Amino acid sequence: MSSNSNGKQSLVPEARDALNKFKMEAASEVGVNLKQGYNGDLTSRQAGSVGGQMVKKMTTVRPTKTMCFQRASRTAEGHCVTVKYIAGLLV
Questions:
Q1: CA–CA distance, 44 with 35 (Å, rounded to integer)
Q2: Fewest C-beta atoms under 10 Å: which of 7, 21, 34, 47?
Q3: Three-class secondary structure of residue 17 per DSSP
């Protein structure tokens, strides 16, 4: 296993290059100019927008199944409430 500069060990060393490429793509999509290596001159807003874009792309929700049914209202006698459940798959 390889060791990072911060002391953490990568479980999959080959993933580092892929994640760096993904980070650069996300940065260009939100208009942040990243350079290879240290980017300590970025503002918190810029760094957050890059991370947010990465998360947004990693956690795209795709609804796969919707279920609707009616049940008796718990607050008003004689009334029905429609309940809708949406199951999604994180891709």
A1: 16
A2: 7
A3: helix
Q: Are 1 and 13 in contact (CB under 8 A)?
A: yes
Confirm whether pTM is higher than 0.85.
no
Give the whole-angstrom CA distance, residue 83 versus residue 41: 49
**Helix, strand and coil in the chain, % to nearest 5:** 35, 25, 40
CA distance linking residue 19 with residue 33, whole number of Å: 17
Q: Return the higher-pLDDT residue of 90 and 25.
A: 25
CA nearest neighbour of 31 among 18, 44, 48, 50: 50
In the chain, the amino acid numbered 81 is: V
